[in-house]
Amino acid sequence: MTLQPRRRAGRGILSVLSERRYAGYFFLAPALIYLVAFSVYPLIYAVNVSLRQYILSKPYLGMPWVGLGNFWRVLSDGHFQYSMQATLYFAGAAVTVELLLGLGIALLLNRAILGIGIIRTIVVIPMMIAPVVVGLSWKYMLDFDTGVLNYFIRQLGIRPPNWLGDATAVIPALIITDVWEWTPLFILLLLAGLQAMPQEPFEAARVDGASSWQSFANLTLPFLRPFILIALLLRVMDTLRTFDTPFVMTSGGPGRATEFASLYAYRQAFSYYYVSLGIAAAFIVLILITILSNVLVKALPSPDRGD
Amino acid sequence: MRRRVPLRRGLGAFLTYAAVALVLVWVLFPVVWVILGSLKAREMAAAIPPVWIFQPSLDNYASAFVIRNFGLLFLNSLIATLASTAVVLLLGSMAGYALARFKIAGKQNILLWILSTRMFPPIAAIIPIFLLFNNLSLIDTRQGLVLLYIAFNLPFAIWIMRGFFVEVPAELDDAALVDGCSPWQAFTRVIMPLAAPGLAATAIFCMMYSWNEFLFALIISRSASQTLPIGVMGFITQRGVLWGEMSAASTVIMAPMIIFTFLVQRYLIRGLTFGAVKG
After folding, report:
1. CA A19 to chain CA centroid, nearest Å
2. What is the pLDDT, as a whole number, of residue B9?
3. Which domain holds residue A235?
């Protein structure tokens, strides 16, 4: 620091505030304050309400303390147990199919193909479209009588299922929709992984007489592991709280066959006004997601810190 | 490093391209089917056997946007999207810059905390916000939606902008500071222009998330501030689904996003993984 007067002309208040010593905090503070307001307040409120009984339609009851009572009530509710089972079935099946299909398509697109740039971009379109629109489009195509999919199936001489009206076909129908929407994430990430892969080990393996299956299993898959894990992490988190698509396609039906965990929580809070039970259900899902993502993160190599 | 498998010839190449064509049909069919549906007359939209060749008409668009007042919903969606994105870009790039450049106590923890706010289940977050907005008379207002979408997109913008700033050499900041710029001037005049492509990509992703957002709008907006994704549900009626109008509205919702996809193709991987993977 010199004592020479610094040129202050033309500097606004923002420049003065960003003086070097505090600069980092000056730049960080606005966003951080905003985020604290919008996440810490809801968090504290939600934790508090989850431990009390709060019924939105009966404000005169106040908010008596019930401790973990809401959690026990939700966990012992047969509808919630079914809802968790359906959610896990949906998430597990959808993510597995997306991974396998995504890996296959990424390997296919990694071959030298003309127009790969444009093909890669087209393949990503489904995940950029609003989930509501995805849901409605598939509802349109999966309609039992007038849907184009059942038209094709009938042409093949097969009796088509009543996709969205039959309790056994409806979760597969939602899985197909999710696979259409989200396989692109796996394709994109795994293709990026494949293209970053060094070629030398493969040449060495070929010289040593390894079969293409051996080099896939021993070289390609281990190299792709971090890419697979990141895609799995993102998808597991999202499928376990899926809301939009089932809400639009089935509104939880037929009966309660597709009342996944988020929809269960939504209904408790906004249809029956049992706000505490809704939040408790959402927290149970959060705990499950946290456990699963920790397992996945543990399996990840330590992330590149970038600074 | 990007050597690929050499071009194949003959049967192998034919099978490869056939498989690629199959993938493209699978990806594009639903999109094309909805666009076709939007151009069909009412009795054709759900006809069996499906109608492939027809005289296109814009009746469904007229019906959705003129008769059912989708113009207002379009405006609501547009305002919520653009206003929230503008604020997110400013706050997000400032914070991203701070976390990329400056010594900040507990930086790693702050970064992880920012990320963790996105893990919080939206359904649990929206209940307290709904009650708060109720007290502040923000229910069913565009302002309420804008405030929510800022909070929703900010963590993403901070993370991804930080990734872009890390790539701009720090010597440039130092040079600007030596030349007498304040850190704010160095940021706005030197660094931001260099990070412009990243800023544009971040803007597009934020617009995409806000434009497509469903759950918050479902709970916060009723009629005056209803957005397109909520309005389009209105075509599911007691007497059946109005497939033609629904397809028209759906086409309007997805068309800008498909264009955006092509604009951000270089940054897709970053954008979709919170910057965790640099494609």
Report:
1. 41
2. 66
3. 81-260
Which CATH number applies to B64-272?
1.10.3720.10
> pTM of the prediction?
0.90
Counting one residue from chain A and one from chain B, the pairs whose CB atoms sit within 8 A come to 284
Cβ contact, residue pair A24, B103, below 8 Å? yes
Of A24, A234, A237, Cβ closest to residue B102: A24
The minimum CA-CA distance between B11 and chain A, rounded to whole Å, is 14
- Asked if B33 lies within 8 A of A141 by C-beta distance, the reply is yes
Q: Is B15 on the interface with A (CB under 8 A)?
A: no
* A152 part of a folded domain: yes
Identify the CA nearest to A106 among candidates A42, A29, A5, A187.
A187
Q: For A119, which of B7, B20, B124 is closest by C-beta distance?
A: B20
A208: domain CATH number is: 1.10.3720.10
Residue A34 placed within a domain: no
Under the banding of pLDDT at 50, 70 and 90, the label for residue B275 is confident
**pLDDT for A74-104, tens place per residue?**
999 999 999 999 999 999 999 999 999 999 9
Chain B nearest-CA distance from A46, in A, is 6
- In this structure, is residue A98 part of a structural domain? yes
Q: A residues 267-306 near B, CB within 8 Å?
A: 269-270, 275, 278-279, 282-283, 285-286, 289-290, 293, 303, 306
Cβ-count burial of A18 within 10 angstroms (0-12 exposed, 13-18 middle, 19+ buried)? buried
In chain A, alpha helices (H): 13-17, 23-50, 69-75, 78-109, 116-128, 131-142, 148-155, 170-195, 200-207, 212-215, 221-240, 244-249, 261-270, 275-299
Averaged confidence pLDDT in chain A: 88
Which residues of chain B does A26 touch, with a Cβ-Cβ cutoff of 8 Å? 98, 183-184
Q: Give pLDDT, residue A218.
A: 87
**Mean pLDDT for the stretch of residues A18-24:** 76
Which residues of chain A does B24 touch, with a Cβ-Cβ cutoff of 8 Å? Answer: 119, 122-123
Q: Is residue A22 part of a domain?
A: no
Tell me whether A238 touches chain B (CB under 8 Å): no
User: Which of A211-225, B44-58, B69-83 is modeled with the greatest confidence?
Assistant: B69-83
How many domains does the structure of chain A reveal?
1
Q: Can you tell me the mean pLDDT for B141-170?
A: 93
- Backbone φ and ψ for B273, nearest 5 degrees, come out as -120, 20
Place of tokens 């008379």: B137
Q: How confident is the model at residue A304 (pLDDT cuts 50, 70, 90)?
A: very low
Separation between Cα atoms, residue B262 and residue B279, nearest integer Å: 15
Residue A78 identity? G
Q: Where are the domains of chain B?
A: 10-61, 64-272
Does the pLDDT value for residue B90 go beyond 60?
yes
